[in-house]
Amino acid sequence: MINPGHGIEAMWFIMDQAERNNDSVLAEKDIERRSLDLLNFVGI
Asked: From residue 25, how far is each of 16, 17, 20, 38 by CA, in Å?
């Protein structure tokens, strides 16, 4: 069994860092990357 929790946790850390640095580019990249990772996890 694979747990997607680590991917979600990593996204949370990166989003927090992006918010602290007011870095919308980092936030968008993280959303795109993690969304693709999670979609791949569920087979979409």
From this structure: 13, 12, 13, 20
